[in-house]
Design brief:
24% helix, OB fold (Dihydrolipoamide Acetyltransferase, E2P), 6-stranded antiparallel beta sheet, single chain, Biotin_lipoyl, 3-stranded antiparallel beta sheet, GCV_H, alpha+beta
């Protein structure tokens, strides 16, 4: 399983990509493999303030329901509306079209405190051993 190098990761299997001062957030391919087919995604409204490491939504899959955790603190500036009609995008393209929200971070340095792709790969390996 490959994990892109241009994103940072949480221990709860979310990813965060910082571009032009905005952080795009989704769940990793490992998370989608563990969840199974995603059938519903509950996301916050634009304008909501999020706190790092606190739940911001829910992903419901055939196997289970799981909370989504904010990788950074800040304001939700965009929500992926396509997921309402096609939640399977999360499985099909977890690091692309299956993104969930975009956050304007209160502190950009929070992104650098997340796991690198190598650290995340080790975490996943440890959880499988």
């Amino acid at each position: 399983m490959e994990f892109p190098e241009d994103v940072r990761y949480t221990r709860e299997h979310e990813w965060a990509r910082l571009e032009n001062g905005v952080v795009t957030v989704g769940i990793t391919s490992y998370a989608t493999d563990q969840l199974g087919d995603v059938v519903f995604v509950e996301l916050p409204q634009s304008g909501r303030q999020l706190e790092a490491s606190k739940p911001f939504g829910v992903v419901e899959a055939v196997k289970t329901v799981s909370d989504l955790y904010a990788p950074v603190s800040g304001e939700v500036v965009e929500v992926n509306r396509a997921l309402a009609d096609n939640p399977a995008l999360v499985n099909q393209s977890p690091f692309g079209e299956g993104w969930m929200i975009r956050i304007r971070p209160g502190r950009v340095e929070e992104v650098q405190q997340l796991l690198t792709h190598a650290e995340y790969a080790r975490l996943v390996e440890e959880q499988h051993s």
